[in-house]
């Protein structure tokens, strides 16, 4: 079979044009001055973006009309067009399909809970980690997202929540989880910069508490150690999925490089440096990783490595198209959770949102 040189038709894939969010405070001022404007315009623009969550020149009445369009055009180019927004769970879950400047598709999911609103954002378009149970993993990596593209998903969600586009009326966006498409720690520098923009108080950032931000990883050990030294108070989530190397080598292929023991040692380093409890993610798959002995081994290892600084989130597997795998039956799930708890490790089942709109964990494949 011959393969056509599709590359000629493919849209140019690359990082977006310069954006305010990608620049430091000094760089913003310099950029504004370069455009022939007074330096304080940089702060005004930042206030509109981070404080008022707007990129609409019409709303920027503190900036002369003649300057607005140009400043916005040069420093806040449109990063995404919302192609589709789907809601389910009686309006409490909203998935946005976003198209970037080069045609790349990205998804983010906004969820309302009784006490908070959380957005799940993507850090890459596609993913290179190839976990066989994850829809995104099947398509491979398209490209990294820029810092501005990561933050823009949060801004759009914060504005949607504030403006009452979630069922139940207006709500403040309180939590951000980097658990959408992609491996955050494989796009390390941009993700760290995005965390600063998400957490710094306005006008430098969106003012969301670091403790309310979760960075989820397959277990890139050197990057976890590096993250521990950033001086951030974000929650680290590690997608473990099984306590034994033999099975983890297939469920999370990067395990062939960094073994369970190394991943847990890195998680311990993170917990010790930050004092933060680490989340262990465990997608429970029928007859694959749901055996009582695995629950016992998981509890024992986590107790040994992390003591009190750990919490296990069991995620019932969301079957992806074409996969033979399924979630475990409820009694098996209950027994699994019971055994992990019995080892002294807090373990709960994560509620799965957005199933009817393919917005649940691992379903963000954005095919168009
Ligand atoms: N690459 C990062 C973050 C993105 S995935 C990571 O792996 O942690 C977010 C979580 O959803 C991960 O724990 C991932 O393993 C899980 N997940 C992926 N596909 C899933 C599926 N089909 N069912 C349940 N959880 C899934």
CATH class of the largest domain: Alpha Beta
Bound molecules: S-adenosyl-L-homocysteine
> How large is the count of helical segments?
11
> Structural class, from helix and strand content?
alpha/beta
Q: How many DSSP E strands?
A: 12
Please name the CATH topology of the largest domain: TIM Barrel
Strands ordered across the widest β-sheet: 1-2-3-4-7-8-9-10-11-12
Helix content: 25-40%
DSSP strand (E) fraction? 15-25%
In one word, what is the shape? globular
Query: Which whole number gives the mean pLDDT?
Result: 93
What is the succession of H and E elements? HHHEEEEEHEHEHEHEHHEHEHE
CATH architecture of the largest domain: Alpha-Beta Barrel
Structural domain count: 2
Biggest pleated-sheet summary: 10 strands, mixed
Low-confidence stretches: 1-12
Radius of gyration: 21 Å
Report the CATH superfamily of the largest domain: Aldolase class I
Distance between the termini: 26 Å
What do these coordinates show?
- Strands 1-2-3-4-7-8-9-10-11-12 form a ten-stranded mixed sheet, covered by helices on one side. The chain has a two-stranded antiparallel ribbon with strand order 5-6.
- Strand 10 (278-284), helix 10 and strand 11 (310-316) form a beta-alpha-beta unit.
- The chain is 33% helix and 18% strand.
- The longest helix is centred in the middle third of the chain and has 16 residues, at 147-162.
- Helix 10 (292-306) runs parallel beside helix 11 (330-342).
- The model is unreliable at 1-12 (pLDDT under 50).
- With 368 residues, it is an alpha/beta fold.
- The protein is globular and about 70 Å long.
- The chain has eleven helices and twelve strands.
- The chain folds into two domains: 20-75, DNA polymerase, domain 1; 113-357, TIM Barrel (Alpha-Beta Barrel).
- The protein binds S-adenosyl-L-homocysteine (SAH).
- Residues 129, 131, 133-134, 179, 183, 216-218, 239, 281, 283, 315, 317-318, 320, 361-362 line the site of S-adenosyl-L-homocysteine.
């Amino acid at each position: 079979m011959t393969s056509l040189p599709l590359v000629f038709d493919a849209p140019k894939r690359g990082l977006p044009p310069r954006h305010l969010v990608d620049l430091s405070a000094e760089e913003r001022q310099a950029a504004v001055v370069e455009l022939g404007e007074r330096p304080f315009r940089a702060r005004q623009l930042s206030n509109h973006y981070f404080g008022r969550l707007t990129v609409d020149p019409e709303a920027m009445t503190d900036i002369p009309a003649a300057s607005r369009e140009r400043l916005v055009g040069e420093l806040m180019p449109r990063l995404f067009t919302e192609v589709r927004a789907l809601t389910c769970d009686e309006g409490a879950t909203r998935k946005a399909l976003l198209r970037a400047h080069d045609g790349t598709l990205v998804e983010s999911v906004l969820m309302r809970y009784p006490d908070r609103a959380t957005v799940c954002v993507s850090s890459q378009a596609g993913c290179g980690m190839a976990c066989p149970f994850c829809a995104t993993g099947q398509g491979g990596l398209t490209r990294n997202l820029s810092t501005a593209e990561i933050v823009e998903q949060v801004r759009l969600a914060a504005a949607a929540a504030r403006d009452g586009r979630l069922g139940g009326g207006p709500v403040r966006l309180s939590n951000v989880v980097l658990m959408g498409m992609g491996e955050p720690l494989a796009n390390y520098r941009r993700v760290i910069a995005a965390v600063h923009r998400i957490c710094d108080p306005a006008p430098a950032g969106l003012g969301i508490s670091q403790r309310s931000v979760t960075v989820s990883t397959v277990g890139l050990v050197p990057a976890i150690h590096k993250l521990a030294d950033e001086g951030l108070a974000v929650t680290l989530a590690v997608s473990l999925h099984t306590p034994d190397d033999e099975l983890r080598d297939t469920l999370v292929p990067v395990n062939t490089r960094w073994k369970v023991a190394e991943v847990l040692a890195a998680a311990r380093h993170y917990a010790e440096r930050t004092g933060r409890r680490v989340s262990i993610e465990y997608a429970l798959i029928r007859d694959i990783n749901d055996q009582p002995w695995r629950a016992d081994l998981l509890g024992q290892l986590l107790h040994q490595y992390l003591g009190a600084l750990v919490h296990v989130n069991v995620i019932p597997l969301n079957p992806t198209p074409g996969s033979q795998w399924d979630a475990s039956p409820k009694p098996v799930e209950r027994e699994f959770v019971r055994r992990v708890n019995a080892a002294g490790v807090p373990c709960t089942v994560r509620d799965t949102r957005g199933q009817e709109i393919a917005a649940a964990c691992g379903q963000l494949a954005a095919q168009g």
